[in-house]
Amino acid sequence: MVGQRNWNRRMAAFVFLLPAVLGLIAFQLLPMASSVVVSFSDWDLLSKWTDIHFIGWSNYAEVFTNEKSYMSIKNVFIFLIGYMPVITVLGIFLAVLLNRNIRGMKLYRAAVFIPVITSWVAVSIIWRWLLNGQSGVVNYLLSLAGIQGPIWLQSEHWAMVAIIFVSIWKDIGFVSIILLAGLQDISDDYYEAANLDGASAWSQLWRITVPLLSPTLFFIVTISLINSFQVFDQVLIMTNGGPAGSTSTIVEQVYRNAFQYNKMGFAAAQSWVLFGIIFLVTIGMQRLQRRWVVYER
């Protein structure tokens, strides 16, 4: 009787899990396995599977030798250098401000988070208009202060700066709210003891808040790194990868090679190279966390 009940439970679990497992296999595992095979071929998306020609590691070699592909990889790291430090530091200070107990704070927190839930398409279109070099609001405001604004999205020097700025503006709400949750998990006892010892607010920030906030910071840095490597929407809409490829990214190149140039094999190789970069960076972050992340409270 007991054995029959256990069997029925296992069968019920199998029946309930089967649709999800089949969906996982059909829409994730099989496409991933297929992309590995395609990455070693010259498939053009239009030919039959029987006409595929395997070319070995040529696509992977081209990822690093092709000028546009190499530039897209370099641009992603340029984006990271400009994006990560700024959004992390600003996120900490904004979280500290949002952690204050003042009237209307819930409204302020909601306002900060609004850009996060706004579509990247809508945000990119609005900022493309605001950053218009001739009739944009940003340059108009700069002109009131006697500053001649650049042609943001048509300049090789300023286009990536504009992409980074807009990305920070949209993502800062997510970062600050997550850090705010981490701040509220820190006991007030630490700050009371610091006040008794005469520690300044700045000293408390760097000697209490930041160390105890390090697990949350580690999560934010890891998620932001992964998302930064996959930056795409704002680039495609605001600059279309230009000017002269100065804002082209890996995902943008994957999209173009796969669906515009019909170089599906090369696009699949670029995708797996991107996966490898993200995987290595994530492993590196996991190892480095032992040196600076404090889990004891």
Automatic annotation (TrEMBL):
Biological process, per Gene Ontology: transmembrane transport
Record-linked InterPro entries: ABC_transporter_permease, MetI-like, MetI-like_sf
Annotated localization: Cell membrane
SUPFAM superfamilies: MalF N-terminal region-like, MetI-like
Protein's recorded name: Carbohydrate ABC transporter membrane protein 1 (CUT1 family)
Superkingdom, taxonomy of origin: Bacteria
Pfam family, one: BPD_transp_1
Predominant localisation class: membrane
Topology in membrane: Multi-pass membrane protein
Membrane spanning stretches: 76-98, 110-130, 158-183, 204-226, 264-283
Matching PANTHER family: ABC TRANSPORTER PERMEASE PROTEIN, INNER MEMBRANE ABC TRANSPORTER PERMEASE PROTEIN YCJO
Annotated GO CC locations: plasma membrane
Residue ranges constituting the ABC transmembrane type-1 domain according to the UniProt record: 73-285
Gene3D superfamilies: MetI-like
